[in-house]
Amino acid sequence: MTDWHKGVELFRGGLMTAWRVTAGADLVPRELWELQDKLRDDDFAAMGRDARAFVARFGAVAPCLPRFVEAAGDYGFVVAAPPWLRLAAIAKAGPLPIELVATFVRDLARALAALPPSVALRSLSPNTLAITTDGAPRVLDLTLARFAPREAVTASGVVKGELRFLPPESIRGMIPDAHGDVFALAVIAYQLALGDHPFAARDATDMDFVHAMSRAQLRAGALDRLPPRLAALLHAMLAVDHVDRPWWPEVAAAIDDGVPELVWPPHRVFAEASRLAPDAAREAILYGY
After folding, report:
1. pLDDT mean over 9-35
2. Cα–Cα distances in Å, from 285 out to 21, 64, 273?
3. Closest C-alpha to 191, from 216, 211, 165
4. Residues 90-137: tens digit of each pLDDT
5. Dihedral pair phi/psi, residue 200, rounded to 5°
6. HSE-CB of 238 using CA atoms within 13 angstroms
7. Are 123 and 141 in contact (CB under 8 A)?
8. 272-275 — which CB contacts under 8 Å span 24+ positions?
C-alpha cells in the first residue's frame, strides 16, 4: 500500500470530483487545498477518448451502461429507453425502503457481473445511477471508466472519483478495479437506506471524509439498523483491503440466498420509486429521460 499523499487539489466538474496528488508523507490541511472549476482541457479530452473506447468494448455486454455521444468537441452519455429515474431524485424525500435498496444492489450487481473484474467504473453515486420504468438499474455516466488497473495515478497526476464514494485505495492514489465500485455501491446503499454516511457525519468536512474513508473505519453502530445478513454483506463490501471485498456475482448471490425476503419484483421497484418521487417520475415518462 502506498504512502499518504499531499499537494491535493480538488477539481469540481459536473458530478465528478478529481484529486491531483503528489507523493508525500502527510495530507495537506484543508485550507491549503486549491479549488478549481474544471479539469484541464487535456484531461477532459483524454477522458472522452477513454469513455468512447470503453463503451465500444463493453456497451453490448452490459445493457445497463449508457451509449457514448460526441458533438462539437464535447461528449456525453445517452441512456436508452425505457425512461428512468435518478436515485438522487428518488431519495430526496428521505431514506428508501430496505427492500428497494436491496433489490437495486442485487440487480446492479447482476448486470455488472458481465464485465471483467479489471473493469472499474469509478463514478457510481446516487446521481449517476437510475431505475428504469421496467425496474432495471442503469448507469448514467462512464466518464471515469477504465478497463485495466494502470499506474498509481493518471498521466496528469489525477486520481478521480466522487469523494464520498471513493474506496480507500483511490484515496491512497491507486487506480481501483471492480472492487472499488463494490465499495462505492455499499456506501450508496447505506446512504439510501439510512439517510446518512457510514464513515462520517452529515456535517463532516472533506478532510474528515478523507481520513475516515482512507481507513474504511465505520462509525460506531453504523450497520446496527440494517437486517443482520444485509449488514454483513455491506460490511464485507466496505472492507479496507479491496481483495477482501466480494465481486459482483458474490454480491448478487448473497442477497438472493441470504435475504430473499428483501427482493421485490421489477414492477414494484419502479412503482415505489415513482411514489417517492412523483414529479420526477412524471417528467421521466413524459420526456423519456
Report:
1. 31
2. 43, 18, 13
3. 165
4. 998 899 999 999 999 999 999 999 999 888 898 899 989 999 888 999
5. -145, 155
6. 26
7. yes
8. 272/97, 272/100, 273/85, 273/90, 273/100, 273/131, 274/85
Question: And the C-alpha cell for 63?
Answer: 445493457
Alpha carbons 278 and 2: distance in angstroms, whole number: 47
Q: pTM of the prediction?
A: 0.80
Distance of CA 136 to the CA centre of its chain: 17
155, 114 contact by CB (below 8 A): no
Cis check for the bond before 176: say yes or no (omega within 30 of 0): no
What type of residue is 182? V
Cβ atoms within 10 A of the Cβ of 82, count?
15
pLDDT in tens, 145-159: 887 654 434 444 455
Instruction: Decide the pairing of beta strands 5-13 and 16-23.
Output: antiparallel
Q: How far apart are CA 79 and CA 93, in angstroms?
A: 25
Rg (CA), the chain: 18
Give the residue among 256, 258, 271 at the shortest CA–CA distance from 110. Answer: 256
Q: Could you read off the pLDDT of 165-185 as tens digits, one per residue?
A: 888 888 777 778 899 999 999
- Give the C-alpha distances (Å, rounded to integers) separating 37 from 12, 34, 153: 6, 10, 20
Q: Which three cell numbers stand for residue 180?
A: 472499488
Cell 439510501 sits on residue: 192
Beta bridge partners of 211: none
pLDDT given at position 155: 43
